[in-house]
């Protein structure tokens, strides 16, 4: 198959294949993160199984905490609520998709 294709054409074809593969992989590295824009001042939430801190980023201007409970409920909590500081569970940052 390659014997009928010129030497320069091989390089062009291989380069094209490489570009397609790299662009396909690079396109899947960024995930669109949700932006919860209406946090509420909930009373203390019980049975918390996980929480994450949403920080301000380029595509999201709201600082909030996303809390999930054992009943699969999700709460978007204002970071200024006093009981939030007393949580025994750590709330890591949501991974941001910043481009440097």
User: What sequence of helices (H) and strands (E) makes up the elements?
Assistant: HEEE
Give the CA-CA distance, first to last residue: 43 Å
- Helix tally? 1
Strand order of the largest sheet: 1-2-3
Secondary structure: helix percent: 10-25%
* Derived structural class: alpha+beta
Question: Judging from the principal axes of the Cα atoms, what is the shape?
Answer: elongated
> Could you tell me the mean pLDDT?
77
In short:
This protein has 100 residues and is α+β, with helices and mostly antiparallel strands. The protein has 1 helix and 3 strands; from the N terminus they run H-E-E-E. It is elongated and about 75 Å long.
Describe this entry's structure for a reader.
It is a single chain. By secondary structure, the chain is of the alpha+beta class. Strands 1-2-3 form a 3-stranded antiparallel β-sheet, with no helix packed on it. β2 (64-69) and β3 form a beta hairpin. The mean pLDDT is 77. 21% of the residues lie in helices and 17% in strands.
